[in-house]
Design brief:
This protein is α/β, with parallel strands linked by helices. The protein is built from 14 helices and 21 strands. Bound molecules: ligand TXE. The site of ligand TXE has 29 residues, from helix 7, strand 11 and helix 8.
């Protein structure tokens, strides 16, 4: 497989460029070669995007919407093929790719495709005049993706950008180059002008080229806080617009009156889905002292039943971590947890065989881990691990747990479990996070804004809220009388 640039409607060849092998996390066998974009590729991509932008901005919202809706149909019609590519690239179970990744991408296309015709300004009745506003496109936008949800991240950026009349150059993570190319092909087949959605491959250096390019008007990143800061600084030099979807260390609070079975289900979802490689995960699990022991016992029991194994097997519930390096980083966190005095209740080791007895030693597999006897100041409770490792923490009062939950520089997400609905809302209103849940976790319907506060990001993806991040408002005053002039 060749992972190269997709510019002006065609996949370019990769010769004479820096390249590296892309590996399948389940066995570290090479899947193909990734060709890093060079200066000429970026210039060609910007020229092509600009050309497409000037065609696309003349289309009506309804015409743009039709292309997005058709592209959504094409994605859904290729669900199995694209899901298999995503599982090979990311290492997540095929059951997840089939159920979530491509469908969420198509949902975004349908949502923004359906509303494109409704993006409009306002009218203002004035004295002998009137005014109106126009939400105009920004121009060429660049999207930079993380490796955990490659096609979902690409579509969550492309759909609102294109619905608003912009064009986009998208750079997937250097570890997951495959499915952004499938999205680019779907746009072409759906009738998009060549260059409307271009894909460039590469690592942070290519991302940097997009951030520093004077003819790119906006950068939307999904990535780590450290990358977010670099991109924010780079964009500031050109006063570019930015959307930043960054990391988290989110609290999941379980009060003594919560439905325990549901709270345990959500804790598993909030920590072990996609091998725990989910930015909004609730990795600091605060449980009221009254139910702490029974909650931990039920959590341990269900965690140990999770089927870790070959991601391509439909029965697998937890697959492989993205890379050897990332797996080793998580193992270091687990060692740090143990050496700081926390108790590893279960998991946290490399299994030799999967749940069907297959040898998985060549892949990046770790069993889901639970730490107890934790202290808020421990590294495992403060730093984003981005893996299948949760810390369970005991609390006594509402005031105490709110203060501890907010004691972090992150502010992406938060969850509360209680059957006291007044308390649920009262507590959620005091938690410093952008995306929150009461009695569930990690459910992200396209209709609801998604994004973080504090160091977890800027701007929002999804919902109507995304429109303002891909448009610039023009105000027009129309005089119906004469110009009153003092001269
Ligand atoms: O991020 P990185 P990763 C977060 C998650 C974790 C991280 C994991 O919480 O922290 O992302 O993803 C490019 N200039 N989220 O390791 O390393 C890089 O090539 C320009 C949050 O991929 O930051 C890649 O394409 N670009 C999230 C992208 O940035 C640069 C959902 C991200 O890389 C660059 C998913 C530079 N200097 C993961 N350096 C959310 N909140 O929605 C790197 N890149």
């Amino acid at each position: 497989m060749v992972y190269s640039q997709f510019v002006d409607g065609v996949l370019t060849t990769g010769s004479k460029r820096e390249s590296w092998l892309n590996y399948n996390p389940a066995n570290n066998n090479p899947l193909g070669e990734v060709f890093q974009a060079n200066d000429q590729d970026i210039e060609a991509a910007v020229n092509s995007s600009e050309k497409a932008f000037h065609i696309w901005r003349t289309k009506t919202g309804a015409e743009r919407g039709r292309v997005l809706l058709k592209a959504a149909d094409i994605l859904r019609s290729r669900l199995e093929k694209i899901a298999s590519l995503e599982t090979q690239d990311v290492g997540k179970p095929i059951s997840e790719s089939l159920a979530v990744d491509i469908s969420s991408a198509a949902d975004a296309m349908e949502y923004f495709g359906g509303m494109a015709a409704g993006i409009h300004g306002e009218f203002f009745d004035l004295k002998n005049a009137f005014g109106y506003t126009r939400p105009e496109p920004l121009g060429v936008c660049a999207g930079i993706g993380a490796w955990n949800y490659p096609i979902q991240i690409a579509a969550w950026k492309a759909a609102p950008a294109l619905a608003c009349g912009n064009s986009m150059i998208f750079k997937p993570s250097e570890l997951t180059p495959a499915t952004a190319l499938e999205l680019a092909k779907a746009f072409m087949e759906a009738g998009a002008p060549p260059g409307l959605f271009n894909v460039v491959q590469g690592d942070g250096r290519v991302g940097g080229m997009l951030v520093n390019h004077p003819r790119i008007a906006k950068i939307s990143l999904t990535g780590s806080v450290s990358t977010g800061k670099k991109i924010f600084a780079g964009a500031a030099a050109h006063l570019k617009r930015v959307t930043l979807e960054l990391g988290g260390k989110s609290p999941l609070i379980v009060f003594e009156d919560a439905d325990i079975h549901n709270a345990v289900s959500a804790t598993l979802l909030a920590n072990f889905y996609s091998q725990g490689e989910v930015c909004s995960n609730g990795t600091r699990v605060f449980v009221h002292r009254q139910i702490f022991d029974s909650f931990l016992m039920k959590l341990k029991d269900r965690t140990e039943k999770i089927r870790v194994g070959d991601p391509a097997d439909p029965d697998t519930q937890m697959g492989a971590l993205i890379s050897k390096a990332h797996m080793e980083k998580i193992i270091r966190f687990i060692e740090s947890g143990k050496s700081s005095g926390a108790t590893l209740v279960t998991g946290g080791f490399r299994p030799e065989k999967d749940f069907k007895g297959r040898d998985i030693t060549s892949g990046n597999f770790l069993t889901p881990a639970i730490f107890t006897d934790c202290d808020d100041s421990m590294e495992i409770c403060k730093e984003e691990i981005f893996g299948p490792v949760l810390s369970i923490l005991c609390f006594d009062s509402e005031e105490e747990v709110i203060e501890r939950a907010n004691n972090t520089s992150f502010g992406l997400a938060a969850g509360v479990f209680t059957n006291d609905i007044k308390r649920g809302h009262r507590v959620i209103h005091q938690l410093q996070a952008g995306t929150c849940w009461i009695n569930n976790y990690n459910i992200t319907p396209i209709e609801l804004p998604f994004g973080g506060n504090k160091q977890s990001g800027q701007g929002r993806e999804n919902s109507l809220a995304a429109i303002q991040h891909y448009t610039q408002l023009k105000s027009v005053y129309v005089e119906l009388g004469d110009v009153e002039s003092p001269y």
